[in-house]
Amino acid sequence: MVAKALTIAGSDSGGGAGIQADLKTFSAMGVYGASVVTAVTAQNTQAVTAIHPVPDDVVAAQIRAVLDDIEIDAIKIGMLGTPSLIAAVAEALAGYDGPIVLDPVMVAKSGDTLLADSAIDALTSLLFGRATLLTPNLPEAAKLVGEGSADAQAKALLELGVGAVLMKGGHADEAVCTDQLISQTGTQEISAQRVNTRNTHGTGCSYSSAIAAGLARGMELNDAVSRAHTWLHQAILHADGLHVGQGHGPVHHFHALWP
User: Fold this and answer.
1) Which residues, at least 6 apart from 175, have a Cβ–Cβ distance to it below 8 Å?
2) Is there a contact between 137 and 168 (Cβ–Cβ < 8 Å)?
3) Catalytic residue numbers, as ranges
4) Average pLDDT of 136-162?
5) Mind giving me the DSSP string for 154-187?
6) Which one of 119, 224, 248, 258 is most buried, by most CB atoms within 10 A?
7) How many beta carbons lie within 10 A of that of residue 59, not counting itself?
8) Count of beta carbons in the 10 Å neighbourhood of residue 196
9) What CATH number was assigned to the domain covering residues 4-241?
């Protein structure tokens, strides 16, 4: 049996983030990927120039179509955008009891806003309680629960109902990048030397999808996070070899398969 994962996220026409990055990640990790598109973006390595949301009922219909037919072992949720869409997704997932990795996508690598401020309350109230893991970067954590230490922010996020929090250190400045997997039972730190590259478009999407792929294959959460971290570090190390675009290029999802 091949593990199967579903991504619910926006489309990136440049291919480096969103649905495209998620499906590439699932494939790289040996998992069959299904997808639900929440928005179509006009996007490249430099900017997001247009966003066209998919109607809420069509997003919900996509979710139902997949779950009614395919046995999905894990779900990754990315770009949602509006309170009504978040509500529609939460309702469509009401009968799903598998692991969910929630990546609170708020701002693109280019700096463009992808989640309205009005949607934050809906995200925390309707989806946090369903999330096996939340994967915020430092700016996202601050927007969700305010400034503070990673421990304090994680505690506040856990109190909002998520099962565990992966506090990502990619936006920090230290030479060694450290992520913290924090749950009610303790903290696991995962570190790697920071890579000097501007080609990091889609790292958050890819990281959360790699974790979802591990969960889909039956791995324990800490093992899925460790494996995803190692894979992503290699994808970043090989990113410069792709030569995609003139801005923040994508990571190399298939670094283990072709140069």
Assistant:
1) 193, 194
2) yes
3) 168, 200, 202-205
4) 92
5) HHHHHHTT-SEEEE--TTS-SSEEEEEEEETTEE
6) 224
7) 21
8) 7
9) 3.40.1190.20
* 227 closest CA partner among 207, 252, 199: 207
Average pLDDT of 104-125? 79
Six-digit token pair at 146? 């305010």
CB 213 within 8 A of CB 25: yes
Q: How confident is the model at residue 172 (pLDDT cuts 50, 70, 90)?
A: low
Question: How many C-beta atoms surround the C-beta of residue 256 within 10 A?
Answer: 11
Torsion angle of C-alpha atoms 251, 254, 257, 259, degrees rounded to 10: -30
C-alpha distance from residue 142 to each of 29, 115, 154, 213 (Å): 31, 14, 10, 27
Measured CA to CA, the distance from residue 119 to residue 193 in angstroms comes to: 35
Reported pTM: 0.96
Count Cβ atoms below 10 Å from residue 94 Cβ, excluding itself. 8
The residue ranges of every structural domain in the chain are 4-241
Chain centre distance of CA 180: 16
DSSP string across 205-221:
HHHHHHHHHHHHTT--H
Q: In 3D, which of 227, 97, 114 has the Cα closest to residue 163?
A: 97
Residue 259 has pLDDT above 90, yes or no: no
- Overall average pLDDT of the 18-37 stretch: 98
- For residue range 44-72, what is the model confidence (pLDDT) as tens digits? 999 989 999 999 999 999 999 999 999 99
- Report the pLDDT value the prediction gives residue 112, as an integer from 0 to 100: 66
